[in-house]
Amino acid sequence: xxxxxxxxxxxxxxxxxxxxxxxxxxxxxxxxxxxxxxxxxxxxxxxxxxxxxxxxxxxxxxxxxxxxxxxxxxxxxxxxxxxxxxxxxxxxxxxxxxxxxxxxxxxxxxxxxxxxxxxxxxxxxxxxxxxxxxxxxxxxxxxxxxxxxxxxxxxxxxxxxxxxxxxxxxxxxxxxxxxxxxxxxxxxxxxxxxxxxxxxxxxxxxxxxxxxxxxxxxxxxxxxxxxxxxxxxxxxxxxxxxxxxxxxxxxxxxxxxxxxxxxxxxxxxxxxxxxxxxxxxxxxxxxxxxxxxxx
Length: 295
Hints:
By secondary structure, the protein is mainly β. The protein has strands at residues 27-32, 45-50, 60-62, 69-70, 88-91, 100-102, 110-113, 120-123, 134-136, 140-142, 145-148, 162-166, 170-172, 176-179, 249-260, 263-265, 281-290. The mean pLDDT is 89.
């Protein structure tokens, strides 16, 4: 329904086509002004054609979801099936701007995330055997949007991290981010979770530790060196929490060159009258490193 306000001579009708990969023909839209308590001009109807856009040619398989969803749902892909080991995954705003959760455990051939894709890709790799690593046998380009992993569950067990193995080159564009802020151990008001959590009451909580010692509490109680954890040569742990979640963890292996022009961050949550949470981990094993981004 379109209403022309009193005293106005026109109004704008916006037509937004929706993706429909099942239909492979053009569509015709007819718009007619029906008779009423007003004079009809001429013409009183108009037709427009919505031209079909063909699917990307194989071996490209584009993310085409109409709503945020999982990569394991075949209907979310332009090829009508989930990406296979010989296919290039494409995230392009022309096909979909929706967020994705990558929960496929099979390898894929390559990954291209275009600069105009604004969404968030959540990589659901785990510390355990359920989904230990996302494998991309060729190149991986993240030119727009964000990569992250799910937030940790409540408790002291590490569940999710970002673990990706790239067989070719890896590119993080200047307009793209890997954002693992507050994706570590989940927030917990009294004491927090994780090896570095202090267990002190919230009002006097000592600083949360990880790779280094946390600070003293407001009452001067020092943190314990027994709370420091993780490896200085192969850091893979999540950040411990307080009233805010700790930072997440990324473990990235790249056989070729990793060009990082965007931002990679794994900060813990801020504190207020209690301590801030601990940051997470970056573990990068690269053929070579280039770029002007920030870690």
